[in-house]
Amino acid sequence: MKNSVKDFFSDAEHQDSPLREITDFLEEEYCNEQAGKYSDMRFVGYVLDLGFDNATIITSDPFKKAVGGVPRGSFLIMAPDSLEGMPPHFSLLRVNAAAPTPLSRDVQQTYFELHKKSMPDLDIWTKGELQWGALSADVLGMFFPDPSDAGNIMFSGDVNNIVSAHRYKVYAPTEALLRIIVNGTVRQENQFPIGKLRLTECSLPFANSHPVDTNVCVSTNDFRGFRTAMFGKTRLGKSNVVKIIAQSILETNEDDNSVGQLIFDINGEYANDNPQDGNKSLRSAYPNRCEVYALTPRPNTPSKPLKLNFYEQPDSCISILKTLLEQANQTAQYVRSFSSVQLPSIGDVIALPPGSQRIRAVRRIQMYWAILKKAGFNADEKRLRQLGLTGGGRTSPSHFDPHFNQGVIKAVYGQQGHQPPKTLDELKTHLEQVEQFRQQNKNDPAIQGLFEADDEALLEFFAPTIGGGPRILRPYMMYHDPQAGHFVQQILGYLDGGKTVILDLGNASDEIRQYFSDLLSRAIFSHQEQKFTDNKLAGHFVQLYFEEAHNLFPKEEKDFTGVYARFAKEGAKFHIGMVYSTQSPSTINKELLAQTENFFVAHMSSQGEAEALARLQVQFDGLQRDILKTRTPGYMRMLTFSHRFIIPVQIKKFEATAAGPASGVGQ
C-alpha cells in the first residue's frame, strides 16, 4: 500500500499527527487480508451506495461477528482502498437502520420456502447467500489533519468529495481510533473524563469480543460561560451529571480558582450525604472549597444560615411576604393592600437629605417594623440602632421615633404629652395609639394629609378592624434571623474567590426557592456586568446550576426581560455560564434553548418531546427512537461545544474522591 515516493513524503509530514493511527490501521488491515487472518480484521463491508449525507453498506454475518456486532448508533469509519499520497483521513459513519439489498425479495422468498418445507439444514451455497445484508448509515463528516498544523486534528461536518462506491471499504474502529472519534475534537485544555463510550443499552457481549472501554472526555472550557441543558425523566442521572460537571470544574481549576460556582440545591443532595443510598455529596468531596448556606441547618453538614433579616431588608422582604401571602390564598382587601406596599431599602433612606421626604420614608419603615414586632419576629434592637435610621434634623436621637408633629401628638395624647419611643415595644404601642385615634377621628385636621396610601395600608394591616393582621405572618418566621447578615455580598465574595457555593433549599417552598434564585441571579448578573464595565473580568467565570428550570425561565417566547433570558443572551459576554435541567425541552423558552451549546439527554417517554429536541438541535435528528427506548440511569446522549456530533456515553457515578483531569487525546 505504501510503496511510492509520494507516500513516503506524506508519511514524513504527518508522522506526528494523531491521525497517523488511520494509516497504521489500514496497513495492518491490508497485511491481515493478504495473510488470510480474517478473524483479526476490523473489516465490516463494502459501500453499496454513497452520497454526501448517507451511505448503504453491504456486509455479512461473519464480518459483524468478528468485530463484536454492529448495532444501531455505532460508529464506523469509511476509507478508500488507498490514500494515494493524500494526508491521513477518514469519513465517519453512524449506523441508523438495516437496509434492503438488491436481492432482498429473493432472500425472503428463500426463507419462506425453507420454513414451509421445514428444512433446517442449509447447504453451503444457500447459507452463504442468506448471511449477506445491508446497513444504512449517516455520513457524519470527515477527520483530517489541520492544514496549518499537522499535529492537530480537524473535523468537518461534510466531505469534500466522494468517488465511486466500490473504491471504499468500511471498518469498525479500534480503541485507538475510537478515542480519536470521541475525543479528537475536544479542546486540549482542562480535559476531564466524564464517562465511558456506550454504543447500546444492551450490554450482552459477543463471544470472544471485548466490550468497548473508551473514556469520553469533556473540556471544562466548554462549560465556562456557556449554556448547558439536561433533559430526561426523573431518577435517570441528571443530578449525577451536575455533580460530575461541578467536580470537573473544581478539579481543572484547582490552581487558579478561576471559576466560582453557585448551585441551587432544591433537594439538598449536593450539600448533604445520603447514607441510605451510599451517596456522598459535593461538599464532602471538597470540604475546603465548598460553602453551604442552608435554610434549615442539618446536623452533619456545616453551613451558614440562609435566612433573611426581615427588619434590615425591608425592600426585598416585603416582596417575599407578598408572595407567601398570595400562596396562602390570603385575599382580604387589607392584606392585598399591605402586599402592594413598596418600601425603600435602608441604604436608600439613609442617603436622603434631612427633611420631610426622609422623615416619611423612616416612618414607613418603622410602621413595617411595628408589624413584624407585633407578629412575633425577633429583633436585635442594638443592630437596628446601628443602622442610623433616624429622621434627621430632629432633636430626638431615637431610631424608633416616627417623628409625628406636635399637632398629632397633642391630638392623640392630650395635654399629658408623650415621650418618643426608644424601643420596638414602645414604637408598637405608640402606633397603636395613633391608629386608634385615626380610625375614630378620620376628619380631625391634625391627621388630614398626614398619611399617604402606603402608610394607610401599613396601619390598617397593623391594627385591622377585622382579621388577624400581623398574626397571619407568624408561619413565615422560619425564614427570619435577627442576626442574618448580608449573605448576598458574602456569596459574591466566595464566587470571586473561586469557591463553590451550595444553597440548600431542600425544605423551602417553591416561592422561597424562586425568590433566592431570582435574588442571587440578579445580584450575580449585576456584579459581573459591573466587572465587565470596569474591565476587571480577566479570566474569571461564574457558573450557575438550576434544577427544575421550567419553574424559573420565562414561558413566553418573546419575554427577554428577566435575568434568565439575559443569562442566555448576554451571559457569555459577562463570563456567566449556566447548567439547567428539566424533564422536557418543550417547557423551556425556545429562544433560550436556541442559545444552548451543550446537551445531556437521558430517556424521554414522549415522542413529542423527542421530536421537539430534534427540531431544536439538528444533531439529535435520527436519534429520537433511541432516546425513547433506552432508560438505563446515567446513559446519555451528549453534545458539547467541542463535539460535532452526538456521543452516547455512560456517565460515571460521582464519587467523593478527586478524579483528576485527563491528559492527552482520549485518556
Let me know the CATH homologous superfamily of the largest domain. Answer: P-loop containing nucleotide triphosphate hydrolases
Inertia-based shape: elongated
SS-derived structural category = alpha/beta
From the 3D structure, determine the CATH topology of the largest domain: Rossmann fold
User: What distance separates the N and C termini?
Assistant: 30 Å
Could you give the order of strands across the largest sheet? 9-8-19-18-17-10-16-15-11-14-12-13
Mean model confidence by pLDDT = 87
Number of domains: 3
Q: What kind of sheet is the major sheet?
A: 12 strands, mixed
Q: Calculate Rg over CA atoms.
A: 34 Å
Provide a count of the helices.
22
The count of β-strands is 19
- Reading off the top of the CATH hierarchy, the class of the largest domain is best stated as Alpha Beta
| Strand percentage | 15-25%
CATH architecture of the largest domain: 3-Layer(aba) Sandwich
**Estimated helix fraction:** 25-40%
Unreliable stretches: 1-6, 662-667
How would you characterize this protein structure?
- Residues 214-325 form the Helicase HerA central domain.
- This is Helicase HerA central domain-containing protein.
- InterPro entries: HerA-like (IPR008571), HerA_central (IPR002789), P-loop_NTPase (IPR027417).
- Pfam families: DUF87.
- This protein has 667 residues and is of the alpha/beta class.
- It has 3 domains: 5-185, no CATH class; 216-307 and 484-651, P-loop containing nucleotide triphosphate hydrolases (Rossmann fold, 3-Layer(aba) Sandwich), CATH 3.40.50; 314-479, no CATH class.
- The protein is 34% helix and 18% strand.
- The strands form 2 sheets. A 12-stranded mixed sheet has the order 9-8-19-18-17-10-16-15-11-14-12-13.
- Helix 12 (356-375) packs across helix 15 and helix 12 (356-375) runs parallel beside helix 16 (453-462).
- It is elongated and about 120 Å long.
- Mean pLDDT is 87; it is low at 1-6 and 662-667.
